[in-house]
Specification:
mainly alpha
């Protein structure tokens, strides 16, 4: 943790690159595995890696004290965020799925005002309106059949789960990051696999080739275990809405990665809506003059 905090700007850049490339990489993996089973395998493998690190570091589990917090993390960070995002990636181009997910900073701005006492100023409020307009511009084609309306819904649901999970980790401030991430993902990963089986997914659909194994490794060890340890350590000590807003660069990286790795086209609506989302997050986090800005 001390290393992450000491070089927090460097680790924030690393985090943005990991998450930005995550969607194009996961899009490749989903070609060889059903979405919920894939998400469940990633969660269980990433949780196992973090559990091993927790045991190696000697961190105390304190399950009796932390089980409620871990249950909330299971619901928000695994089932809602992780499960819904896997489905969104399956039904949407990676860049659009990423931009929908990164409406999360807008949601965090609202939640942090009510739950973390991070004041929502007039400037921030206007920024939120601009952000929702951007998301609407990105999403409107789903109503005409060009994009999956179901995928758009799952993308927004994943953003909401991540937003609640971010605010919750800030309020709870757990002492053991490893255990706080690993146990919910171990249990939630198994749950996602079972939900996938109940909805008709089957392990026989998995194609165990090298591209799938590489994306599974990336998604679990790098995209989950590594990135979430960085993220939670940064959230514990920083302003939640400001930190979340810094992730506006992730959709830009993701769109570039989707174009390069997946040869995806980028519609004009994505540029317009994405620009509005980025501008809104800038407004939400831009320091306001103390003499002119009033609280909203």
């Amino acid at each position: 943790m001390n290393l992450v905090l000491r070089y927090h700007k460097t680790f924030l850049v690393i985090l943005i690159l990991i998450w930005g490339m995550g969607y194009p990489v996961m899009k490749v993996g989903l070609a060889y595995c059903p979405p919920l089973i894939f998400a469940g395998l990633r969660a269980m493998l990433g949780g196992l890696v973090l559990a091993m690190l927790a045991l190696r570091s000697g961190e105390a589990l304190n399950l009796q004290e932390n089980w409620r917090a871990m249950l909330a993390s299971l619901v928000f960070n695994v089932l809602l965020f992780f499960g819904s995002s896997a489905i969104a990636i399956k039904f949407l181009p990676s860049g659009i799925a990423s931009v929908l997910l990164y409406a999360q900073p807008i949601m965090v701005g609202v939640l942090a005002h009510f739950l973390l006492n991070e004041i929502l100023t007039q400037r921030k409020f206007i920024g939120l309106l601009v952000g929702f307009l951007g998301v609407a511009i990105i999403s409107y084609k789903g109503l005409t059949g060009d994009l999956s309306l179901y995928g758009i819904g799952m993308g927004l649901l994943s953003a909401l789960g991540w937003a609640f999970g971010t605010v919750f980790i800030k309020r709870k401030n757990p002492r053991s990051i490893y255990w706080f991430i690993s146990l919910p993902f171990l249990v939630g990963g198994l749950g996602l696999c079972l939900i996938g089986l109940a909805l008709g997914e089957h392990p026989s659909e998995i194609i165990w080739n090298m591209p799938f194994l590489i994306t599974l490794f990336w998604g679990s060890v790098i995209g989950l275990a590594t990135s979430w340890v960085i993220w939670f350590n940064l959230v514990k000590v920083g302003d939640a809405s400001t930190l979340s807003a810094n992730t506006f660069l992730v959709p830009v990286v993701s769109m570039a990665g989707g174009a390069v790795l997946l040869n995806e086209s980028v519609p004009l609506s994505l540029f317009v809506g994405g620009a509005l989302v980025i501008y809104s997050i800038y407004l939400v986090n831009r320091p306001a003059p103390a003499t002119t800005e009033t609280s909203k």
